[in-house]
Design goal:
Helix content is 46%, strand content 12%. The chain is of the alpha+beta class. Helix 5 (160-173) runs parallel beside helix 12 (299-319). The structure holds 2-acetamido-2-deoxy-1-O-phosphono-alpha-D-glucopyranose (GN1) and magnesium ion.
């Protein structure tokens, strides 16, 4: 691996030497490495999964163009602060934004943002509030970026009917064992079907605006400084046209879970309503002026819908014998799905009583 990474690193335009590497293993799709060099800055080198992302040049140009847009918006900041607020992509020696190996793999490289912290789980209301500000600001700053120029890197990514049809297909081919194991959850999916289509129906009727969205706003995709202040939104692979609810809901899904998304002890998995309020406050402080009343009205439903869509996708992948997400053990996807269903239950109970 080291020799391969060294070689790929050397294809990019930088003036330092490769020293060592370590894997940044938080994602479920791509392979990501921190490259330490003889002098700072360090770099993040990433192999983009071309089984999942079919148009990698389109994906790369989405994220480079959005970064350039943010850099322009933040050009008033001192350079050092600007460099910690936006992802900066490094070009290859040939001037491209990605390098393609002979075997077909695509790589891109970013400057590593030093002295930053990420959270897989939130244990602090201030982080929830700061996360809200960071993702709210991202939506606000991209609200004048022409969404129609973005490539739809995964068509129908958060489209509920599409995710239901994948689930129904998986049910047809799933093993008897896995179907029996998942029976209770398969029934939950059916019971929530209508409610979970409300946002999509509003989107399709044109009542909710299409805007630039990040589409993977789990809290581990937010960088913080060591004083818990939000710094930079990362993992911009899935930037596409979408609705505000995708980004609000997916952040809530991870921030308000009192445990990690794959915690197996479901007693530890609960929805933290205080974090919801803190996130919502930070989020609206940054983006409320860009939102319509109907967008704001449906934010609570966005939370339930995005938790549900992940539950559905994890369950589908379990039924498909784990062909999409990386897993660490055989029932990993099933555990993730159970975890998300427990979170929905806890959220729904608390919403009823507020
Ligand atoms: C995947 O690979 P990662 O962690 O960035 C997935 C997201 C899910 C997430 C769940 C392209 O993101 O949609 O929310 O796992 N990304 C893709 O943790 O499917
Ligand atoms: Mg991602």
């Amino acid at each position: 691996m080291e020799n391969q990474l060294k070689f790929i690193f050397s294809q990019f335009n930088q003036d330092t030497q490769f020293e060592s590497y370590s894997e940044l293993a938080s994602g479920h799709i791509n392979d990501t490495y921190l490259i330490k060099t003889t002098k700072k800055p360090f770099f993040v080198l990433q192999r983009i999964n071309h089984g999942v992302f079919k148009d990698i040049p389109g994906l790369i140009s989405n994220k480079v163009n959005v970064s350039n847009h943010l850099i322009k918006k933040l050009s008033h900041l001192p350079k050092e602060e600007l460099n910690r607020s936006v992802l900066r992509f490094v070009k290859t020696k040939e001037g491209n934004s990605y390098y393609q190996e002979k075997e077909g793999n695509y790589w891109n490289m970013m400057v590593f943002i030093d002295n930053s912290v990420t959270y897989e789980e939130v244990k602090d209301e201030e982080v929830a509030y700061e996360g809200g500000k960071l993702f709210g600001d991202f939506l606000n700053m991209t609200s004048d970026f022409p969404a129609e120029t973005l490539t739809e890197v995964i068509p129908k990514f958060h489209d509920m009917s599409f995710r239901f049809s994948q689930f129904e297909e998986a049910l047809k081919t799933a093993s008897k064992e896995r179907k029996t194991q998942a029976k209770e959850y398969i029934n939950c999916v059916a019971a929530l079907k209508d409610e979970m289509h409300i946002l999509q129906n509003l989107k399709e009727s044109g009542k909710i605006k299409i805007r630039v969205t990040h589409n993977d706003t789990k809290i581990s995709n937010a960088l913080f400084d060591t004083n818990k202040k939000g710094l930079c939104v990362i993992d911009t692979d899935t930037i596409m046209p979408g609705i505000v609810h995708y980004d609000f809901g997916d952040a809530i899904r991870t921030i308000c879970n009192t445990a990690a998304e794959d915690e197996r002890n479901l007693d530890l998995v609960n929805f933290n309503m205080n974090y919801y309020k803190a996130y919502e406050k930070g989020f609206l402080e940054e983006v409320e002026s860009a939102l319509t009343p109907i967008e704001i009205k449906y934010l609570p439903l966005a939370a339930k819908t995005m938790i549900f869509i992940m539950a559905l996708r994890f369950l589908t992948d379990f039924l498909n014998n784990d062909i999409y997400y990386k897993i660490a053990y055989p029932e990993h996807n099933f555990d993730r799905a159970k975890n998300q269903f427990k979170l929905i239950e806890s959220f729904a109970k608390q919403i009823e009583t507020t």
